[in-house]
Amino acid sequence: MKAPQSLDALVVGAGFGGIYQLKLLLDQRLSVKVIDIAGDVGGTWYWNQYPGAMSDTESFLYRYSWDHEDLRNYPWNRHYLQGPEILAYLRHVVKRHEMRKHFQFNTELTKAVWDDSEGRWTVETSTGDVFKPKYLVTALGLLSKQNLPNIPGLNSFKGDIHHTARWPKGLDLRGKRVGVIGNGSTGVQVITAIAKDVKELVCFQRTPQYSVPSGDREVDPAYREDLNEKYAEVWAKAKESLFAFGFEESSRPTFSVSDEEREKIFEEAWQKGGGFRFMFWTFCDISYDEAANKAAADFIRRKISEIVKDPETARKLQPTDYHARRPLCDSGYYQQFNRPNVDLVDLKATPIVEITPNGIELSDGHICELDVIVFATGFDAVDGNYTRVAIQGRNGRSLKEHWADVGPTSYLGISVPDFPNMFMVLGPNGPFTNLPPTIETQVEFIADLIETAEESSTKGELADGLVSNGHPNGQLNGHSNGHVNGHNSTQTIEKKSGSQRVIEATPEAEQEWTELCDKLSANSLFRKTDSWIFGSNVEGKKPSVLFYFGGLANYRKALRDVVQNGLKGFR
Ligand code: FAD
Ligand code: NA7
């Protein structure tokens, strides 16, 4: 084992979250390192290099808001960003802010143990490096641990098998017989991208999904100029909305308008494009009212039957359950099924029996002969990356044990009692939104917590408020909202022997937050529909509440409330 390296903070994960956390902690002049299993920065976009990988958040909000100059000058030419463009953007940010030397790649956190007497974490890694940080920030990503179903015969296949989240560079599928298992957001993207190039494409679909056009198109220079003028306002508005997708969420119930008007509104959303827009800009009740949901679902089903020429294929592609999974959008998904080289297998009618050396055998005895099998089968989302490694808090109790009975819990999606000075970015029960604005919100809050602990440690007294020092990025210090200065803070940060202070959520705060998240999702049709959003996509995983459904604006209000009330809920 190598000699332990002492650090102020260790950040794990080099995606959107880890990069910004590094930036803010360096600004505080702390000694910080970021480690990642990956070979470079990028997180999601380093791993997901499959053809068609695209963010379906519009380009102007799938980036950082804090570098105002870069926000206006960095080029993007289309309304949506392709995976490689996002990767290039994140590399650019790291270079522009001279952060590269602080990253260590090809390094996995395998174990982290809290030591109460030292007031530090001991972090072990796959490279044998040992780090001893005061603060451990885990930005492990909520969609990053792959879900690879254990289908009998998997290892017998003579061709190539790839999961979309581990796509090999330069893989050429031209002229190949390709099978894609899965038709979520990823499956829809990869199928749409490769259909025209491969010899044969067999799409193995278990549950049909609702998808609407993305509306991707080139950006008009006048649009960009206008946006550049208003960028600050646009971001402020997004952060004070529910989902932060850059449109105003509707407050109009589905049946408050006539049938004709409703059809017109759905059609307008279909033409504009965007899955979240279709669900939340049109009407306010699609996600929780059964009749409203059916109206939206019927509209999309009609569109599918108009687009897909073969009526039997169209029938198979039409979902029958609620439109209540992560809303999808595409660049011509249903159209691909009009190609003569594209076939659809309905796995509910003919399930996979096994993978054979030459392909996939179905329950009716038919073998689909294939050269390549693509698993677009998603992720063990949210807590998957946390329970896979050994993170031990006080008394040697692991996070996995802490979450064993009730499911993954936290306070604010950030902190867990008995895991002191550990802060999660996008941990369980954080907001369900377009993610960069939520990531920024959490990263800034975490930076402010650490700054407070540091200040109080050096001064030997409590800082005069979590964010009262004019932190240039502090989202809660009045920089972006002007409301909170934290001067009434009477926070109770534990003082360790020596001068190190320790912050963690209280058990009561964790319980209250968990109950709130449970309550907020209780009436949602999303909860009644199996998907990764409630942890019901992975075999053997217990479904549970994994998100705060109150929206980003309310989440930010909750954080301000924490600050104004003396770090309420933290010990
Ligand atoms: P990630 O980008 O996932 O980075 C986490 C990093 O942690 C990874 O690099 C991983 O290797 C590393 N890591 C994990 N465990 C360890 C460990 N034990 N040791 C060392 N390193 C570790 N979100 C949106 O808001 N809009 C979209 O349109 C959108 N599209 C998406 C499309 C795809 C295909 C996928 C997979 C996700 C999409 N997302 C989207 C979600 C996306 O994950 C987030 O937007 C964002 O990239 C998350 O950033 P992050 O830094 O939190 O995590
Ligand atoms: P998703 O949305 O979880 O989709 C996974 C797909 O894989 C879905 O169609 C699943 O069918 C299918 N699947 C999973 N396991 C199997 C097995 N064993 N057999 C057949 N089919 C299977 O993951 P994505 O990667 O598409 O998207 C995840 C998020 O990443 C997305 O929401 C964006 O935010 C980015 P099922 O529906 O379970 O019947």
From TrEMBL:
Q: Where is this region: Disordered?
A: 478-499
Q: Where does this protein come from, organism-wise?
A: Lophiotrema nucula
Q: State what protein this is by name.
A: Cyclohexanone monooxygenase
Q: Which GO terms describe its molecular function?
A: flavin adenine dinucleotide binding; N,N-dimethylaniline monooxygenase activity; NADP binding
Record keywords: Oxidoreductase included?
Answer: yes
The biased composition feature labelled Low complexity covers 478-489
Keywords recorded for this protein, A-Z: FAD, Flavoprotein, NADP, Oxidoreductase
Q: Record's InterPro entries?
A: FAD-binding_Monooxygenases, FAD/NAD-bd_sf, Flavin_mOase-like
UniProt keyword Ligase, yes or no: no
